[in-house]
């Protein structure tokens, strides 16, 4: 019988929120208690089940409905008057300005919200119209602007004739401003009076802009010579296309370009696809190791993603594997696999792989081929006869190529690689990587299209 | 908060409503599913999503960006759901037939769920739905926030307004209760 604190440790590990000390405690508990181990596995399976609940699609017009109602919310009110909802408690009533009532009530409240706006708009219109009319009346001909006299008072005043100013004022004898003064030639003005009258503004006026006076357009800035950029597109095909030679060759050529790759393999049913993958792998001599939790999920056809890590195949062998996969896929009437997408591995892939395996397998680590030193080569007879005899008398050794298949999910939803016997077995039996092999991370995932 | 959301929110605050449209498109499905599990009714879930986004738009300036935008949105949706549930309680009493109906298992029109899918899986789903429905409200809330929405203890504590320790123990009880409800039918 597990103690309460042990149970709490187990559930907290499912939550994925253990401290490093608690992780150590959990590891010890799982190793020492079969009951704890079983319950942990069951809780993990429950979690996986909850996570595989089908996702419902929102109504197709959801975005349109929201955006239609958006203009009703005044832009000025964006965050201006509404209290922040960050600390809203479930027990507290909702303090939001937007209606949460059913549609009919919402429409009623919308109408109520429009009423003050309509009144304000009509008042504004009335004031604007009145002002316009007032100023229009002020600017009638023969009326001094700004006198404050209204049209009504003007109508009440007796009509007085306009005075003749020519009769009242004395004749203007002064010369027009443009007329030169007698006896003062313009040169004299320019020479003596102008320096005193015209302010010296030379210091504050900016220098004139240079003007291009040529007949053509202004000269353009020198343009750098065009450079060719090589774009490396990822490999994209369907699994069925691997039955064609050109697709296979294209894949082999692509995978040979970079030291490590990630392949996303889209399938209608990832669980079934993982099964088919295992069959294809065995057919090309690749053994697949997997943890019991992933095997159980595959058996139950749970719609989770799975990951296969291979680091013992050359590009040609990988081509064979996918060709075989295409052949196996064709045995299913409706087909299991969709498209395949291969791209060079990036640091994020390495990080994911590290989390899955518990160690960093060194995706980009590729040993240099040993140079053949002819001078120090042994003679043919040295040990060759013994080796030949051994090979002829002993049964042939089976290929030891193996790959690892696990659930591709966050830490809380898959086996702990440090406690998984299968993962540790795979890691311990890894042979030294040959220069010609390409480590590859294959993710079998749900096709959504 | 990711940079893309941050930029969209900044654009939105500058008056670009199309930025908010992008946010709506990005989070509507996730929020709809979360709301659906809170209110157990597709129509109500749609209303919750709609009102939550409008409320978020109005209060966008108050969003400080110290949490994920979706978490903040979820908080609003959670409160809208609670408010809606309170209002609906009266209706439920008047129409007892509408409670516990097919709304528990929403119709899924997405392509990923094919008609005629594996019977065993459907059976598991039905059992799980029934078990989740039998969980107490407190337990179901925290379990869905943790397992479906992937929230951390801190985020759940902030939404529910309770200490982190309470969330941890509540989740602990919820997991054991769910395990009991699922029983030996659904075991590894």
Please characterize this protein's 3D structure.
The complex is a heterodimer of chains A (449) and B (188). By secondary structure, chain A is an alpha/beta fold. Among the domains of chain A are: 7-40, no CATH class; 235-363 and 398-446, no CATH class. Chain A is 42% helix and 9% strand. Chain A has a 7-stranded mixed beta sheet, sandwiched between helices. In chain A, α1 packs across α2 (20-32), α2 (20-32) crosses α3 (34-51) and α10 (270-283) crosses α12. The radius of gyration of chain A is 44 Å and the shape is elongated. The model of chain A is unreliable at 75-106, 144-154 and 188-196 (pLDDT under 50). In chain B, α1 packs across α2, α2 runs antiparallel to α3 (42-58) and α6 packs across α8. Chain B folds into 2 domains: 1-96, Orthogonal Bundle (Rna Polymerase Sigma Factor, Chain: A), CATH 1.10.1740.10; 117-183, Winged helix-like DNA-binding domain superfamily/Winged helix DNA-binding domain (Arc Repressor Mutant, subunit A), CATH 1.10.10.10. Chain B starts with a helix and ends in a 6-residue tail after the last helix. Chain B is mainly alpha-helical. Residues 91-107 and 109-117 of chain B have low confidence and may be disordered. The chains are: A alpha/beta (449), B mainly alpha (188). Chains A and B meet through α1, α3 and α4 of A and α2, α3, α4, α5 and α6 of B.
In the CATH hierarchy, the third-tier topology of the largest domain in chain B is known as Rna Polymerase Sigma Factor, Chain: A
Low-confidence stretches of chain A: 75-106, 144-154, 188-196
Q: Summarize the biggest pleated sheet of chain B.
A: none
Oligomerization: heterodimer
* Series of secondary-structure elements of chain B, N-terminal to C-terminal: HHHHHHHH
User: Helical percent range of chain A?
Assistant: 40-55%
Structural classification of chain A: alpha/beta
Brief summary of the model shown:
The complex is a heterodimer of chains A (449) and B (188). By secondary structure, chain A is an alpha/beta fold.
């Amino acid at each position: 019988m597990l103690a309460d604190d042990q149970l709490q440790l187990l559930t907290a590990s499912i939550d994925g929120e253990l401290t490093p000390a608690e992780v150590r405690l959990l590891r010890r508990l799982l190793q020492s208690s079969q009951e704890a181990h079983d319950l942990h596995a069951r809780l993990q399976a429950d979690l996986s089940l909850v996570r595989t609940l089908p996702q419902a699609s929102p109504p197709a017009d959801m975005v349109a409905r929201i955006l239609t109602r958006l203009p009703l919310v005044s832009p000025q009110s964006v965050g201006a008057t509404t209290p922040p909802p960050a600390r809203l408690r479930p027990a507290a009533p909702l303090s939001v300005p937007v209606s949460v009532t059913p549609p009919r009530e919402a429409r009623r409240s919308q109408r109520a919200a429009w009423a003050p706006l309509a009144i304000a708009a009509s008042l504004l219109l009335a004031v604007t119209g009145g002002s316009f009319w007032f100023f229009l009346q002020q600017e009638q001909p023969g009326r001094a602007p700004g006198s404050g006299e209204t049209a009504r008072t003007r109508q009440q005043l007796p009509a007085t004739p306009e005075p003749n100013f020519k009769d009242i004022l004395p004749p203007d004898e002064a010369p027009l401003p443009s007329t030169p003064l007698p006896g003062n030639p313009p040169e004299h003005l320019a020479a003596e009076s102008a320096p005193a009258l015209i302010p010296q503004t030379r210091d504050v006026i900016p220098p004139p802009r240079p003007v291009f006076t040529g007949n053509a357009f202004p000269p353009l800035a020198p343009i750098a010579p065009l450079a060719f950029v090589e774009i490396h597109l990822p490999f994209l095909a369907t699994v069925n296309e691997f039955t064609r030679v050109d697709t296979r060759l294209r894949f082999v050529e692509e995978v040979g370009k970079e030291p490590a790759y990630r392949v996303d393999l889209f399938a209608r049913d990832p669980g079934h696809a993982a099964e088919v993958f295992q069959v294809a792998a065995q057919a090309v001599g690749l053994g697949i190791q997997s943890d019991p939790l992933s095997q159980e999920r595959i058996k139950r056809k749970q719609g989770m993603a799975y990951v296969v890590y291979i680091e013992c195949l050359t590009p040609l062998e990988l081509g064979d594997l996918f060709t075989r996969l295409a052949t196996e896929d064709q045995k299913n009437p409706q087909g299991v696999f969709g498209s395949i997408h291969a791209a060079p591995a990036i640091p994020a892939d390495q990080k994911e792989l590290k989390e899955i395996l518990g160690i960093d397998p060194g995706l980009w680590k590729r040993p240099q081929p040993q140079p053949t030193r002819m001078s120090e080569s042994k003679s043919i007879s040295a040990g060759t006869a013994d080796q030949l005899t051994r090979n002829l008398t002993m049964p042939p050794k089976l290929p030891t190529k193996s790959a690892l298949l696990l659930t591709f999910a966050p830490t809380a939803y898959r086996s702990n690689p440090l406690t998984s016997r299968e993962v540790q077995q795979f890691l311990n039996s890894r042979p030294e990587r040959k220069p010609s092999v390409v480590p590859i991370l294959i993710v079998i995932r749900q096709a959504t299209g | 908060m990711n940079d893309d959301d941050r930029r969209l929110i900044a654009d939105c605050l500058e008056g670009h409503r199309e930025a908010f449209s992008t946010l709506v498109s990005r989070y509507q499905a996730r929020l709809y599913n979360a709301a659906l599990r809170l209110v157990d009714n597709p129509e109500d879930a749609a209303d919750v999503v709609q009102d939550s986004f409008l409320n978020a738009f109005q209060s966008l300036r108050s969003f400080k960006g110290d949490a994920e935008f979706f978490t903040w949105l979820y908080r609003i949706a959670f409160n809208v759901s609670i408010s809606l549930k309170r209002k609906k309680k009266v209706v439920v009493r008047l129409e007892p037939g509408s409670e516990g109906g097919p709304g528990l298992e929403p119709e899924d029109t997405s392509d990923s769920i094919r008609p005629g899918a594996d019977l065993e899986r459907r059976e598991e789903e039905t059992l799980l739905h029934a078990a989740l429905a039998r969980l107490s409200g407190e337990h179901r809330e925290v379990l869905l926030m943790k397992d479906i929405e992937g929230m951390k203890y801190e985020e759940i504590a902030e939404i529910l307004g309770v200490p982190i320790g309470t969330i941890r123990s509540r989740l602990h009880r919820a997991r054991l209760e769910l395990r009991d409800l699922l029983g030996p039918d659904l075991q590894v």
